[in-house]
Amino acid sequence: MVRLSCAVPRHPIAVSALTLATLFARPAWADDMPAEPASLYPADAVGEGSLSGGYALSRWAEDWRSKADPQQRDDLFDRLKYLPLDDDGDIYLTLSGEARVRVNYTTNLNLRNAGSQRQDINRLVGGADLHVGPHLRFYGEIAHGGMSGDNIGTPSGSLRNDLVLLQSFAELKGRVAGMDLGLRYGRQEFTDGPNLLTSQRDNNTIRYALNGVRAWARTGSLRIDAFDFKPTALGNGGIDDDKVEQGRRFSGFTAGIRIPEKALGGSELYLDPFFWRLRTSEALWGGVTGRVERFYAGARLWGEVGPVNLDWTVNHQFGDFDGRAISAWQLFFNQSYKLPGDLPMAPRVGFHADYASGGGTFEGGTLKAAYAPFGNNIYYSYQLCMTPTNLKTLAPSLTLSPLKGVKATMEYQFAWRADENDAVYRANKSIFAGTQSVPGHKIGKSIRAQITWSITPRLSFVGRYEHLDAGPVLSRAGYGNSDYLAGWLSFRF
Predict the structure, then answer these.
(1) 152-191 as b/e: b if 16+ CB within 10 A
(2) Who contacts 124 (Cβ-Cβ below 8 Å, separation ≥6)?
(3) Closest to 109 (Cα-Cα) out of 361, 493, 410, 483
(4) Of 20, 118, 199, 210, which one's alpha carbon is 20 to 30 angstroms from that of 12?
(5) What is the pLDDT of residues 342-366, one digit of tens each?
(6) Do 301 and 184 contact (CB within 8 A), yes or no?
(7) What H or E segment, with its residue span, contains residue 136?
């Protein structure tokens, strides 16, 4: 396990990059390496997110070297993807950006009769990726998040932020003895794991970033990544109020095994075992605040087998909370099947079935409540009223493509408590007060629908509707139904 200091420079590293260019453009130990080694392990499977049309959620995962050829450029923005800074083109800059406008409308805020909420949101992001030869790079990214509307309370720094240094890191990579080796240090996004455990939380105006180090070694069929991070605590003002959160630390390793294509008669499957540790100096469980050290031991199997797409994760959590033992489980099973033939609208049917243990929060003894480090809670509810703690879900789904560039997904979700004596948990691990004191398992049902329209490779629109029908557990504790409606337009270059 990597154990290095997580202090991060307070200003972009790229300012001094050109000064270092002559020193690091071609390290002496790399003289026998290929000029620009490609990753042996498939790029979509190294825990940095998949690419679509050349774009990635983490913009540093993109490769725009093809834009060095003027024949490969379609417009002015393509010119910004490859800006040579020397005669040979070994030192070049890639610029990226995003502008997003969004409106969220939620009724019965917090499932209470507290009126409706409208959030008018804008996000601006600018990034610069400086490549100093084939082995060294510097990446910096700043972002602005604006929010106004009705009944919005006091937005956190992840929802409204004047300016944030979202990412700022240096990366050194190369090929040694047939392996791709790399080291990335600084403030960075991290997604190497199941979506419900580690994600970028793109629903927020300002995305989630951590501070520290990540190192990797990769061959054609195997990989291992080690990391040691501390989160960023965001203020609402400028860059100076975004601090490294010293009371929380996330470290461990994730491995990867590329399963041979012939193993199942033609497949693209990956098995990713992982072992992580999450330490928090002040964690709240059942009204008690104490130090927690939680370990995650598990594996993820994901990929495609013919028309079947699957993503399965099992993990056991153990450790200590304020002198009490932890023993918890999470099991996530998501799969879909593309119907055969030339059916209209290319239908795909599927379902997800998930389990996250609960118990021990209020009655003492072993803490059995599962917890995700920073997972994707909108997977269950855009009202953010469910999280993989004390939760069981079953949700059949249907996906259609009625027009070119348009995808529509519909889902009907059932949700229950895993332990009747534990509460219903929200996205931020807080509870719906009183649910721990009422009987029953059924949390509720949700109708969920989303349409995505890729207008151009750079411009897209997403519309989302969700209705939560509160079940007996919520209604007995005084909570009710809620509707959610949202639309957002995104432009990227």
Answers:
(1) beebbbbbbbebbbbbbbbbbbbbeeebbebbbbbbbbbb
(2) 97, 98, 99, 143, 144
(3) 483
(4) 199
(5) 888 999 999 999 999 999 999 889 9
(6) no
(7) strand 136-150
